[in-house]
Design brief:
Helix content: 25-40%
Low-confidence stretches: none
Number of helices: 8
Shape: globular
Keywords: Metal-binding
Strand order of the largest sheet: 3-4-5-7-6
Order of helices and strands: EHEHHHHEEHEEEEEHH
Cofactor: a divalent metal cation
Organism: Anaerobranca californiensis DSM 14826
GO molecular function: metal ion binding; phosphatase activity
Mean pLDDT: 97
CATH superfamily: Metallo-dependent phosphatases
CATH class: Alpha Beta
Largest sheet: 5 strands, mixed
Domain Calcineurin-like phosphoesterase: 1-199
CATH topology: Purple Acid Phosphatase, chain A, domain 2
Number of domains: 1
């Protein structure tokens, strides 16, 4: 059996569709989404409706929470005035352009998910088990050491950082699939993870998928979203 893990789509329908096509090619039987469907990109409703239409089990991300509950902040890490400007522009635009029915759907998403495949227990959340907006980078898994020691699962799925990684912690596997629609690791292709269960063994890989970035940039430029969001997509990283 194979499952796909996606996260951080951020209103990028072109990236999502390309990733979903690749997942279909890989013959994955299930998809799990770790949240942040919206924000920064120009297609919040299209992304939500695509995920809804496929009945993909989906976790609430910090951006989904901010849009769905009309929060004044996305809960993102903001280190300077430029990042504050980005955050305010994106959040206000997305709140104004996400339909009420889709906001209601976002409000109904769970903050965590427990599932089991082929006898392997999986825990999924957006940021960390401690907070929806906590960043757990590959070098920082010790930050959730207490949780890792006590949670009875084999695999832990985390998103939010937009940096993909696969890491072992004792007998547990920690997996971040990276970002479908807003990569930050310098690779502008969409990212997702594939987990294969076979004969009691678990095999994991990160898969990158090219998509029509120019189309998304053109759509961004038709809105009042910051033009720099398009440049970030082309570069595959944030602008400090």
């Amino acid at each position: 059996m194979k499952i796909a893990v996606i996260s951080d789509i951020h209103s990028n329908i072109e990236a999502l569709n390309s990733v979903l096509n690749k997942i279909q090619e890989e013959n994955c039987q299930q998809i799990i989404c770790l949240g942040d469907l919206v924000g920064y990109g120009p297609h919040p409703n299209e992304v939500i409706e695509r995920i809804k239409g496929l009945n993909i089990p989906t976790i609430l991300g910090n951006y989904d929470e901010a849009v769905g509950f009309y929060l004044p902040s996305c809960g993102c890490k903001i280190d300077n005035e430029w990042q504050k400007k980005q955050s305010e522009n994106s959040l206000k635009w997305t709140q104004n352009h996400t339909s009420e029915i889709n906001k209601k759907w976002l409000r109904g998403l769970p903050e965590e998910l427990f599932v089991e495949y082929n006898g392997k227990k999986i825990y999924a959340t957006h940021g960390s088990p401690n907070a929806i907006n906590e960043y757990i980078y590959e070098s920082e898994v010790e930050k959730i050491k207490e949780v890792l020691e006590n949670i009875d699962v084999d695999i832990i799925l985390l998103g939010h950082t937009h940096f993909p990684y696969i890491k072992k912690y004792k007998d547990k596997l920690i997996l971040n699939p990276g970002s479908v629609g807003k990569p930050k690791d310098g690779d502008n292709r969409g990212s997702f993870a594939q987990i294969q269960f076979e004969n009691g063994q678990v095999t994991v890989q990160i898969i990158r998928v090219s998509y029509d970035i120019d189309k998304v940039v053109a759509d961004i430029n038709k809105t009042s979203l910051l033009k720099e969001f398009g440049l970030m997509l082309k570069l595959g990283k944030v602008l400090e």
